[in-house]
Amino acid sequence: MYISDLDLIKARLTIEGRLNQSEIIKLILRDWSVDEKQRFMAVGERYYAGRHDILNHDFRQSVVYDKVLAENSDDGKDHEIAQTITNSNNSNMHNIHPFFRLLVDQKVGYIVGKPPTVSVEDDKDFETAVTNITTDEEFPDMLTDWVKEASKKGVGWVHPYYDPDGSLHYIVVPANEVVAFYDSEHQRVLEDVVRFYTFDVVSSGETVKRYKVEWWTDHDVTYYVQDEHGNYLLDPAYPVNPAPHWWNVTTVDGAETSREAHSWGRVPWVPLYNNSEATSDLGGQDENGQPCGIKSLIDAYDMISSATTNDQIDLVALYWIVKGFGGETAREIVKRLQINKVVNVSGGDAGDGVTAQQVTLSVEERCKWLDMLRHDIYHFGMGIDTSDEQLGNNPSGVALKFKYTQLNLKANPLILKLKKALKDLFWFLTDDMNRRNGTNYNSSKIVVTVNKTMIVNDAETVSMIMQSRGLVPDKILLAHHPLVDDAEQAQKDLEAQQAQQDKRRSQMFGNDDVPPGGDKGDDGT
Predict the structure, then answer these.
(1) What's the number of domains the chain is made of?
(2) pTM of this structure
């Protein structure tokens, strides 16, 4: 949720004469519960997990309309009354097609499938320190979850924190648990973050859910817990409440001797927006609350596929038409057909007898419609249909780039916001690094390069790299080589290899490093 002015909430409560912290929290959570963006976050999470709306559709039910004539109605007019009828003999299969999950995972892999490259001009020690963080196991894992959360819900939140041992960590918190407040003037400075989540308690022999709330500012955090009356009280689990962002604990022989309160001076939460509108890749909702985007296309695909499957299951290969025979005779004929597959019918009038009518279900038109929907899902979802046969025919680099046009258009806005979000996160990491090591690094000097992952024509790429030597720095060329995953490590390995080769030449040809037959000085020596 993105509220620009906390004073508006306080003003509302002041007018109502109930301004206190508990009432403020109640109003925040109440507004958040009905916020359309927050509700669509849950839809994005649900569709990513494969819990589509089609699961709520019962194909055994159908609606019939009974006509009520005017003489039988209260207002003297004809009416049609809808009635739902359930036929338990019908099939009720549901086909889930997780296009949204595929599209999200595709974009995540495209953007952060390879760790980003960080560089710091004129400060190799700082660059190495930051690179060690970004190539560690925790950081790439966090980065994947961060981009995925933003793609699913429109925004992802990372919270840097210290564990009890004093080590700095960072975690992706579900976006629908975070309410953010920005400055009212420019709506750019994050001033407050309210994080809430549920926990189970036993009350009167029953397990009930209640809320815990964390209210973060630029200097402290206050912990609240919901009581049985729905009010929010200071959480007694925290001896110091409000508390600083972290404690610097000093121990001697495992025993704590002192602790010093510290705060970041800024709210320790970093947002990553999926786009300028902060909407998910599933789409959003229009002014009438109706979903817009690829959700409706996925729902249509699920419906047609499921309906066709149920029709096929319920299809009877042969319908038997029994003419001129009824009652026990008709039942006896059906019984003999089931057992013997043949029946001898005698008696009756001319034209009476048993005939079979075969029924077929045409699916060709439905398949064409599904193909059209699939194309639209990938087109408007701005992804790449990997079932496209052209991808496997070794297309040229230009053709491959054309295939990636839509995905690029979708990914580029997020990449720009990711670079900004990473610089905000690096501020916290650099501050921690400076305090621990006594350094004076400046996080604003960090340059982040996102390494996109895409299908390429390796031969063309290598040829282009060879032709670019001397024109483009070797480090950049290494980062784009198809055999290189870590440009930093590759550069170190090359330098070590070159040093080893120089050493061998020196041993073979002497200290002047000139091989037999090589160039000599003007004096011939």
Answers:
(1) 4
(2) 0.76
Residues 481, 427 share a domain:
no
- Helices assigned H by DSSP within 480-523: 487-509
pLDDT classification of 341: cutoffs 50, 70, 90: low
Which secondary structure element, helix H or strand E, spans residue 249, and what is its range? strand 246-252
Amino acid at site 13:
L
Residue 135: band (very low, low, confident or very high) from pLDDT cuts 50, 70, 90: confident
Tell me which residue has tokens 């400060």. Answer: 123
- In the chain, the amino acid numbered 405 is T
Does residue 49 form part of some domain? no
Q: Dihedral angle at the C-alpha atoms of 491, 493, 499, 503, nearest 10 degrees?
A: -160
Q: What band does 122 get if pLDDT is binned at 50, 70 and 90?
A: confident
Residue 272 has pLDDT above 80, yes or no: yes
| Shared-domain flag, residues 165 and 242 | yes
Residues contacting 464, CB < 8 A, separation 6+: none
Q: Mark whether 290 and 418 lie in a shared domain.
A: yes
Q: What is the rounded average pLDDT of the residues 149-160?
A: 95
Average pLDDT over all residues of the chain: 81
CA atoms within 13 A on the CB side of 177: 18
Q: Pick left, alpha or beta for residue 65 (phi over 0 → left; psi -120 to 50 → alpha; otherwise beta).
A: beta
- Whether the CB-CB separation of 452 and 473 falls below 8 Å is answered with no
Does any domain span residue 256?
yes
Secondary structure element (H or E) that encloses residue 271, with its range: strand 270-273
Res 350: pLDDT: 58
Q: What is the pLDDT of residue 524?
A: 47
Q: Are residues 187 and 248 in the same domain?
A: yes
Q: Is residue 376 part of a domain?
A: yes
Do 397 and 383 reside in the same domain of the chain? yes
Tell me: the pLDDT tens digits for 219-270? 999 999 999 888 999 999 999 999 999 988 877 877 777 888 999 999 999 9
Strand pairing partners for 65? Answer: 82
**Which SS3 state, helix, strand or coil, does residue 200 take?**
strand
| 230 in Cβ contact with 236 (< 8 Å) | no
- Whether a cis peptide bond, with omega within 30° of 0, leads into 98 is no
> Looking at the structure, do residues 403 and 332 belong to the same domain, yes or no?
no
Span 394-432, pLDDT tens digits: 555 556 677 778 888 899 999 999 999 999 999 999 999
Q: Tell me the one-letter amino acid at 65.
A: Y
**Contact yes or no for 175/156 (Cβ under 8 A):** yes
Whole domain around residue 299: which residue ranges? 98-154+282-312+361-452
Q: Measuring CA to CA, how many Å separate 413 from each of 150, 324, 407, 416, 440?
A: 12, 74, 11, 5, 32
* CA pair distance 291, 282, nearest whole angstrom: 9
- Kindly state whether residues 164 and 264 are assigned to the same domain: yes
Asked whether residue 233 falls in the same domain as residue 181, the answer is: yes
Predicted local confidence at residue 522, as pLDDT:
47
Contact 194, 214 (CB under 8 A): yes
- Given a contact cutoff of 8 angstroms between Cβ atoms, the answer to whether 170 and 147 are in contact is no
